[in-house]
Amino acid sequence: MTNRHERIQHYLDHMCVQVKAREVHNDLRDELGNHMEEMILDKEQEGYTEEEAIAYAIEQMGDPAVVGKSMHRLHRHRMHWGLLTGLASLLIISLLLMWIYTTNISDENYQLIYISHLMYTIFGLILMVFLMYFDYQKWKKAAWWIYILLSGMLWINPLVSPFDYGVQRFWSIFGFTIDLTTTSMWVLPLAIGAIMLDKLSTKCDVQSVSTYMLLVALPSYSLFQASDWVRLFLFGTATLIMLAWITRKWLYTFIGATITGSVIMLQLFLTGEYKRFERLSVVLNLQNDLLGNFEYNRSIISILQSAGWWGNGFDITFGISQRFYMDYPGVMLIDVFGWSAGILLLLGIVWFIASMLKTLPCIRDGFGRMIIFSITITFALQMLYSLAMTTGKVPIVSVNFPFIGRGIHIILEYAMMGLLLGVYRRKDTILLRSKQRHPITILSK
C-alpha cells in the first residue's frame, strides 16, 4: 500500500469510528476516499508534490472526528418514538381489558386465557425487536422462496387443516399452532411486492401486470378453497391497492377492481348456503331479524346504549357470550369506560394509521416504502372494520382487532410492526446506496 493510500485509509478509519451505523462505513469510505483522491490529483496537476497534495486534501476535509460526528448525525439509526408510544398504549389497553375479562370469569379454565394472551404478547414483542434490528433488505432476496413456501402450504392446507367454524385456517405442527391464512394475508403481499416492484416501477406493461395478478390469483384461490372469505377479502384488497400505488395507475386499477369485485360479490351473496345477501340486508334493519340470527349485533347496540359517557365499571355483565366477549375489545372498552374511551380509541387509531403513512416520504428506498405501505394498508383495513363492528351496525365477521383482540394473530401484528419500524430505523443508513443519491456535505476547515 502506498503512503497516499495509507494516510487516506488512516483518516477514514478515524472518521468511521464516530459513525455507529456500520452498514454505511464502506459507502462513506468510497465516497469520501474518492473525494480526497480527486483533490489530490487536482493539486498534483497544479504542481504540488504528493505529500503536499495529501496534506492539502486532509486539511480541506477537516478533523476526522468532527467529520465522523457529522456523518453519524446524517446516517444514524432512527427510532419512531411516536409509533412506539402508540403501540405501548395499545399494549396497555390489551392487557388491561384481558385482566378485567378474566377477573370477571368464575371458571378457572378461563384464567388460562390471560396467561396465553400474555405469552403471545411477549413472543410477539421479541419477534418485533428482532425484525426491527434485522436488515429488511435481505428479505427481498428471499421473496420467491417465501411466496413458494406459503403458496404451497395454502395449496395442501385442505388436506391437513381441520375445519374451525367452516374455515380451514390453522396448522398444528409438533404442538405449535400456525394461523396459516392470517400469516399468508400479511406476508404474501410483501413477497409479491418484492418480486414485482422493480418490474412494475420501470415498465408497467400488460405482461408485468398480468404476472402480478397471476401471483395474486394463486393464493387467492387457495384462500377461497379454505373458505376464509375475510382473509381473502383483506388479501385481495391490499394487493390491489398496492398495485395501484406501485404503478400509479389508480383509475385503471379502481375500474378493474370494481368489475372483478362486483362479480365476486354477486357470486358470494347470491349463491351458497350462508345466505349472505339476506344477512347483509337484515343487519341494516335488525327489526326484520325474525329468527334471531343477529343476537350479537343487538347485544352490542344494547351495551353501547347502556354504557353512557363513563361506562358501567369493572363489573361487566357479559351482554355477549362470555366465550366471545374478548373478540370485540372495542365493545368491552366502551362497556367498562364509556363512550369517551371509545372516542379516544377512534382518534388514537386514526392517528396511529396516519403516523404510519407519514413515514413514507422519509423513506428513499423503494422496497422499504412498499413494506410500509403494504403493512399500513392491512392494519388500516382491520382496524377500521373492527371499529365499525364496535357500533353493531355492520355484519360481524372474523376480523381481529390488531394488538387488542385476543388470539395468536397478535404475534404476527407485532412482527409486522417490527418490520415497519426496522425500515424506518434504517431510513438514513441506505442513503448512499439508494438510486436517489444525495451529495454528502463535507465540513471544510
Q: What share of the residues does DSSP label as strand, in percent?
A: under 5%
Total E-strand runs: 2
- Along the chain, the helix and strand elements come as HHHHHHHHEEHHHHHHHHHH
Instruction: Trace the largest sheet across and list its strands.
Output: 1-2
Please indicate the count of domains: 3
Q: What is the mean pLDDT?
A: 82
First CA to last CA: what distance?
Answer: 28 Å
Largest sheet: 2 strands, antiparallel
User: Which residues sit in consecutive blocks of at least 5 with pLDDT less than 50?
Assistant: 433-445
- Helix content percent band: 55-70%
**Tally of alpha and pi helices:** 18
Q: Which structural class best describes the helix and strand composition?
A: mainly alpha
Q: Kindly provide the radius of gyration, computed on alpha-carbon positions and rounded to a whole number of angstroms.
A: 27 Å
Net shape:
elongated
Secondary-structure map with pairings?
Layout: H1 3-16, H2 25-45, H3 50-61, H4 64-75, H5 81-103, H6 111-133, H7 138-141, H8 143-160, E1 170-173, E2 176-179, H9 180-202, H10 206-225, H11 229-247, H12 250-270, H13 276-283, H14 295-307, H15 329-337, H16 339-358, H17 366-390, H18 409-425
Antiparallel strand pairs: 1-2
Helix pairs in contact: 1-2, 1-3, 1-4, 2-3, 5-6, 5-16, 6-18, 8-9, 8-10, 9-10, 9-11, 9-17, 10-11, 11-12, 11-17, 14-15, 15-16, 16-17, 17-18
Structural write-up:
- This protein has 445 residues and is mainly α.
- It has three domains: 3-75, no CATH class; 79-133 and 287-427, no CATH class; 141-274, no CATH class.
- The protein is 68% helix and 2% strand.
- The chain has 18 helices and two strands.
- Strands 1-2 form a two-stranded antiparallel sheet.
- Strand 1 and strand 2 form a beta hairpin.
- The longest helix has 25 residues, at 366-390.
